[in-house]
Amino acid sequence: MSPQSVYLSPSEHPEREAAVVSYSPQHSVPSREQALHALYEAAELEHCLMCTYLYAAFSLKTSVDEGLTAAQVEIVTRWKRSILQVAMEEMGHLMSVWNITVALGGAPRVGRVNFPLDPGYLPAGVVVKLAPFNMATLQHFIYLERPADSTEPDGEGFEPERHFVRGVGAPRITPMGLDYDTVGAFYQTLANGLRRLAEMHGEQGAMCGNPALQLSSEDVSLPGAKRVICLKTALAAFEAIITQGEGAQHNAENSHYQRFSAIRTEYQTVLAADPTFRPAFPAATNPVLRRPPRPEGRVWLEDPDAIATVDLANSAYGLMQRLLAYTYSVPANDPDKMLSLDLAIGLMRALTPLAERAARLPAGPSNPECHAGVTFITLRDPSPLPPGASAHRFFRERFQQLVEAAERLCVSGDPRTVVAASILSKLSQNAEQGFDLSTPWPGTSAKPVALTVVATPTTPASVQDGIETVEGEKLTLLYEARRCIHARFCVTGAPDVFLANVQGPWLYPDAMDVERLVDIAHACPSGAIQYRRRDGRPDEPPPPVNLAAMREAGPYAFRGDLRLNGTSIGFRATLCRCGASKNKPFCDGSHHDAGFTASGEPPTGPSTEALAVRDGPLQIDPQRDGPLRVRGNLELISGTGRMVARVTSAYLCRCGQSQNKPFCDGSHAKVGFTADGA
């Protein structure tokens, strides 16, 4: 994208300051090329805003050891959570723009230019650069997110280098940049152009792209992740972006403008009470990893530890871009789509501790007054790789390189680096399992891992990996205590096999007819009781219908061919939905002590259409600090068995706070829910 700019002094031709506010003064209908060009700018803008918000959040301090009081730590932690939530919503905006791009028949622009953006790349009033959190940076965020009628000034130090207009006054078929004062006005212009495009070509002709390439809320838990299938859904996406953040009215509840303004008010109050309050590290403004050809306004990093940390963070960020682009190149029914999306999200989690570590390291001797910071260097071309085995090999190799670099960094013993290395190692394993090299199309999912028990004649109980095993004549009985929710079907249905409240041996698999004992095992909702037949009869089969029942004020009871983070866990499991379990993702009964309340009889939802297939593998992937992501054919039922919804992909609440149970509504971010992805 190479917008042409006309540089003017403030006194020259003032009438031209607002002359170009649409695609062209004499072009009432944009071409598809012009529409895609504008959408590419929208994607880059959302992408850049997300990075600047993340950079500021990563610079914030987190403990009293870093010069804050305990009360200030609580305040700054709340600010960080709010800024990160805004950044995630910008990611949702970006996904909306990508979906609209696909709907118009284009390929999403995943890349962007490097920071800071040169004048002319965006309108003069939209200055984008990396800067640590302080009052000036916060005011800049408020200015960027301001409503159209706002008089908010820009932050100090964020003034444009010069005043200019980018457009031209004569018709052009070459796509060029638009001028706009606010981001909301930009989206209004895009929406108007899309309406005119649909009027010219017809709605079906305008929205001619393949919707299966898009991402939706079934794939990722982000606001704005909705498929664009018509003009109405495209315009709704634009309106949601405007209302949620850019261009929202002053009274728009929970808008980005309102949230940043609330932080400013509290910031001023804390400063008034303590003028020495410094909530963030002095991270560099516009750090760069190599000697810049244009050094003005940039900080060249020289400290070896900082360089190695930022180098790894940037590499993870670049691989994330490649994976996101790849996600949009394969259709919804291809397992590569979900795997690449999962890995991309995982890389953002690995990036966070590395970026926080960078903000705590010195920039180098040439800039002793400031610290380093992740530079968010983007790839020269993050276009999607050709789908198939070659892409699989590329991703597997690249993950291994990141793991090796992370292991070298871990020598310092820094806990943030160790966390990042652990995340990258797990992601690399998932890539190795999921990206198959033997067949070019499609990729295959990781194979389930079966429990292996050495079969011997009747023996005393043995315990391995928390699983108690007893060999009977016709059946091997297994009990996994950490999954037990004490439903008592075993001790009440087979009291001679399962001896309650005794010291020593308590499992006697030969004390009951084997077929009856098998039925008792099948009744165990948690999967704590499993078995292996020794009489030549088949082991427990997967159920004919995958089910997830909601227990009143209790957990989810899943039945199906269950895969937890890619590993087989049998056909029965009870997973926490109150958020209080100490054994997540499994239920441990904490809902009783926590006073959790949630109906086991939620209303029947809109997703009631019969599934073509009702069984098959059911993938359950707990999201870090977020919901349970479930993929596969699944019927959600009430505690009494009534059908609530039928889905093939869903995000189920596990923080206990959603107002749309059993589905996630984003409340986990608002309440600060924490849980790992295991």
Give a description of the structure.
α8 runs antiparallel to α10 and α10 (389-409) runs antiparallel to α11 (415-434). The chain has helices at residues 32-58, 70-103, 135-144, 183-201, 203-206, 231-244, 256-273, 304-327, 335-358, 389-409, 415-434, 489-493, 514-523, 590-594, 667-671, and strands spanning 6-7, 164-165, 287-288, 299-300, 459-464, 467-471, 475-480, 529-533, 547-550, 556-559, 561-564, 567-568, 572-575, 617-622, 628-637, 643-652. The chain folds into four domains: 30-273, Ferritin; 295-434, Up-down Bundle (Ferritin); 459-533, Alpha-Beta Plaits (2-Layer Sandwich); 547-671, Ribosomal Protein L9, domain 1 (3-Layer(aba) Sandwich). It is globular, with a radius of gyration of 28 Å. The chain is α+β, with helices and mostly antiparallel strands and 678 residues long. It comes from Dyella monticola. This is Iron-binding zinc finger CDGSH type domain-containing protein. One of its GO terms (molecular function) is metal ion binding. It holds the Pfam family zf-CDGSH.
Summarize the structure.
The protein has 678 residues and is of the alpha+beta class.
Which descriptors apply to this entry?
single chain, 678 residues, alpha+beta, Ferritin, Alpha-Beta Plaits, 4 domains, eight-stranded mixed β-sheet, four-stranded antiparallel β-sheet, globular, disordered N terminus
